[in-house]
Structure formats: structure tokens, C-alpha cells
Amino acid sequence: MFLLDKVALITGGARRLGREIALALANEGCDIVIHYRESRAEADALAREIRALGRQTWTVCGDFSNPYEPEHTLQTAWELAGWIDILVNNASLYTHEELESVSVEDMENLWRINTLAPMLMTRKMSTLAARSEILPADYCGRVINILDRSIAKTPPERLPFWLLKRSLADFTRAAALQLAPRFTVNGVAPGPCIPPEDIVLTEPAGPLPLGVRPLPRDIAAAVTYLARAVTVTGQILYVDSGQHLL
Questions:
Q1: In the β-sheet with 86-89, what is the strand arrangement from edge to edge?
Q2: Cis status of the peptide bond prior to 181, with omega within 30 of 0
Q3: Residues sharing a CB contact under 8 Å with residue 65, sequence separation 6 or more, in sequence order
Q4: Using one digit for the tens of pLDDT, what is the confidence trace for 33-50?
Q5: Strand partners, 36
Q6: Bridge partners (DSSP) listed for residue 72
């Protein structure tokens, strides 16, 4: 799949990993819709950077803790750009809390952002594509869910986060079969490539079989590969230097 003139929507696209993915796809020739929740200044700055590359770009705001916002965000992005070829479900809320300490309210909020939002956006994209009268006959959408390398094992210290990312991984495989042949649905499971904002990059990453800590550009390269691939669906691509094998 050539990416020139394709339209990609990246949720949580204004900062950190989302920004890296947006720039990588723009450099491949994609027009970009940047979703953000609170990072409007960063989204606008990224949009200017992408326009400087000669690509079109739009920004759209949405708070995925509201269960009605994901589909509204997808609808808005679709209308702004004309359609969406690639959906990267990157927006996520991370927690170290254990099952015993997480509150009901926090658990529900985590579920809405980390699991429900990608599911709803995928469904909405599929529905809009089915109803569209302007899509080319050979249209094949791409959904790429950003997961976490921890889904390969059960980490007891952050069970709530693991449960929700594992649910999204299961959805990825099930949706890949249900939405074929009009869509491919895949996941990228990053390792310790980006620390929380209040921790410097020297935070211990844990043992890495390859001995190299993944960089954001490695994750973006995996997303780009899956956006191109025409015969890959229902797959989880780990980019963690082999850490999920331990």
C-alpha cells in the first residue's frame, strides 16, 4: 500500500509517541488528522510542522473519558479530511495502580480511554466507509492499535492496565476477521521506549534481550509498516527488544 495522499488519524497525536507517528506518516506522504485532548498548543505546532512538509493537516479535540466523544471525533475527522484511510489508536491513560488500590471511578475512566474508545472509533470508521459513496472501489482501511509489551505476560503490579490493554489486543484479532477484507486491524506493542513525563530517560528499562532500548522512531516505523502491509491482519507486532519473551 503506497501511503502517498492517504489520510491518517492519530489519536493522542500531539505529543510524544503520537507526534512521532504523525511525523513518520507525513514523511511517507500521508495527510494527517491530529487528535488531542488538552494539548492544543502542541497540536497546532505539529500541524505547522507537517504543513511545512507539504502535507495537509487538521486538528480535532476530543475527551475520550466521555463515551460519546470517540465516535464524534472520528466523524469530525472524516468530514474534515473527506475520509480516513489509517486510524492509529494511540491515546492512552497509564497507571501503576494495583487491583486492590484502584478506585471504581479510575477503573471506569481507564476502560473508556484505553479500551472502549479504540473499539468505538474502529466501529465508526467501518460504518462510515460502508456508507460512503466517494471511496475508491479498492479502498482498504487500516486500524493500528497501540498496545503494550506487558500483554504477553500478566504483571501483578499493574493488573488494571494490563487487563484493559489485553482486552484491546483480543479486540484487535477479532475485529481483523470481522472487518476483512475492507480493513486490516493490527497492533503494535511497544516496550520501554518512552518514560512518564516526570521521569528522566535514564529510568531503568528492565532486562532487554537485544540490549537496546527501543526509541519512539522504532515504534513509528512499525506503525508505518503495518499501514503499508496488504497481507497482514490480526497481528501484534512487539517492538521491545525481545522483553516480552522473558
A1: 57-61, 31-36, 7-10, 86-89, 141-146, 183-190, 236-239
A2: yes
A3: 109, 112, 113
A4: 999 999 999 999 999 999
A5: 61
A6: none
Residues 216 and 131: beta-carbon distance below 8 Å: no
Question: Could you report the per-residue pLDDT of 9-36, keeping only the tens digit for each?
Answer: 999 999 999 999 999 999 999 999 999 9
Helix runs in 28-187, H state only? 40-52, 69-81, 104-111, 117-131, 159-179
d(CA 13, CA 23): 10
Other residues' Cβ atoms within 10 Å of the Cβ of residue 97:
17
Q: Give the phi and the psi of residue 234 in degrees, each rounded to 5.
A: 75, 20
Q: Give the CA angle between residues 169, 206, 171 to the nearest 5°.
A: 0
Alpha carbon of residue 147 to chain centroid: 8
Q: Report how far residue 15's alpha carbon sits from residue 37's, in angstroms, rounded to the nearest whole number.
A: 11
Closest residue by Cα to residue 31 from 52, 12, 50:
50
Residue length, the chain?
246
Reported pTM: 0.94
| Inter-residue contact 110 to 160 (CB < 8 Å) | yes
